[in-house]
């Protein structure tokens, strides 16, 4: 009887039968074949930190979205949320790989092994105070309505940013942004359609949608405040001043919320970007315990 190859055999054969790191989204170098030389006039340390900021946003929000697996209100939405999470995971992988390519390493790197790619070391072996994500993405999901509001806000902000980053002087960052624009457009539009459906639906769905808007709005306080790293990279032609995104992002969000027959809360006063500086609440610590637990228990795991 002929041997029938299983999916596990196929994965093993695809990489020469060598054991592979069990926690990544794929096994090839995500920047393979790409010139990762840092252009003249750009501080590699600043570039690495900036990629951590954007990569951590994507990684943490991905983890929040995957928490809806088996919990979404309908099967089709479960698939949609999982696909959005995979898009963000791909963005995180590229951005963390770029951070690693310019020498950014977490303090806990010694817990990993030499066989673990830098992207995985950065994802699984940094502590909460080494993460540079915003408060928006680390907040707990809440109910489905709040999740959709958060996804709408996060994707509208990130889409506005990535649209501009396509002309970044760092060619790697520009390429990541160009790919991400298409994904983020879908995320934003998908969340917007859900908010319209919930806001203009039943009395209960309207109530929950408004509660979601009211809960998420304060989390936007630090989205439009630049760090010193961002300011330097703006001058170098690499980054975008988040203040430039304000009108576009608030305009899109206001339009969607109003069309959903919901009240637009007052925009919060600008706040210091504490998450970008490594200051987080207990929500991130709990999230990382789930995300990193297996990798830290078995740092040399292969399959």
Describe this structure in words.
- InterPro entries: Aromatic_CoA_ox/epox, Ferritin-like, Ferritin-like_SF, PaaA_PaaC, PaaC.
- This is Phenylacetate-CoA oxygenase subunit PaaC.
- It holds the Pfam family PaaA_PaaC.
- The chain has a single domain (7-292), classed as Ferritin, core subunit, four-helix bundle (Ferritin), CATH 1.20.1260.10.
- Helix content is 56%, strand content 0%.
- It has helices spanning 7-13, 44-66, 75-101, 118-124, 135-138, 144-165, 171-199, 203-216, 228-235, 246-259, 282-297.
- It is globular and about 55 Å long.
- The model is unreliable at 1-15, 17-26 and 107-116 (pLDDT under 50).
SSE inventory with pairings:
Elements lengths: L6 H7 L30 H23 L8 H27 L16 H7 L10 H4 L5 H22 L5 H29 L3 H14 L11 H8 L10 H14 L22 H16 L6
Secondary-structure-derived class? mainly alpha
Per CATH, what is the topology? Ferritin
The low-confidence parts are 1-15, 17-26, 107-116
The CATH architecture comes to Up-down Bundle
Order of helices and strands: HHHHHHHHHHH
Report how far the terminal alpha carbons are from each other. Answer: 27 Å
Average the pLDDT over all residues and give the rounded result. Answer: 87
Number of strands: 0
Largest sheet: none
Tally of separate helices: 11
Proportion of β residues? Answer: under 5%
Helicity, in percent? 55-70%
Instruction: Write down the oligomeric state.
Output: single chain
CATH superfamily: Ferritin, core subunit, four-helix bundle
Q: What number of structural domains do the residues give?
A: 1
Protein name: Phenylacetate-CoA oxygenase subunit PaaC
Organism: Goekera deserti
GO biological process, one term: phenylacetate catabolic process
């Amino acid at each position: 009887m002929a041997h029938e190859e299983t999916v596990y055999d196929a994965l093993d054969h695809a990489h020469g039968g060598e054991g592979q790191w069990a926690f990544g989204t794929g096994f090839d170098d995500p920047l393979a074949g790409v010139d990762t030389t840092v252009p003249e006039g750009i501080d590699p340390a600043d570039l690495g930190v900036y990629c951590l900021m954007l990569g951590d946003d994507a990684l943490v929000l991905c983890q929040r979205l995957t928490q809806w697996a088996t919990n979404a209100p309908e099967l089709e939405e479960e698939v949609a949320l999982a696909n959005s999470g995979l898009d963000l995971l791909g963005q995180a992988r590229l951005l963390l790989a770029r951070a690693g390519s310019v020498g950014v390493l977490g303090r806990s790197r010694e817990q990993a092994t030499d066989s673990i790619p830098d992207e995985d070391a950065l994802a699984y072996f940094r502590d909460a105070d080494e993460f540079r994500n915003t408060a928006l993405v680390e907040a707990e999901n809440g109910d489905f309505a709040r999740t959709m509001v958060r996804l709408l806000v996060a994707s509208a902000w990130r889409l506005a940013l990535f649209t501009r980053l396509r002309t970044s002087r760092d060619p790697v960052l520009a390429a990541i942004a160009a790919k991400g624009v298409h994904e983020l457009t879908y995320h934003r539009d998908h969340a917007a359609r859900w908010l319209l459906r919930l806001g203009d639906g039943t009395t209960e769905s309207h109530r929950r949608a408004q509660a979601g808007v009211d809960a998420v709005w304060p989390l936007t306080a630090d989205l439009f405040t630049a760090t010193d790293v961002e300011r330097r990279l703006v001058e170098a032609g690499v980054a975008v001043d988040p203040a430039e995104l304000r009108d576009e992002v608030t305009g899109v969000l206001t339009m969607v919320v109003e069309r959903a027959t919901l009240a637009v809360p007052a925009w919060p006063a600008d706040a210091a970007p504490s998450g970008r500086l490594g200051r987080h609440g207990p929500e991130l610590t709990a999230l990382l315990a789930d995300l990193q637990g297996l990798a830290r228990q078995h740092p040399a795991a292969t399959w």
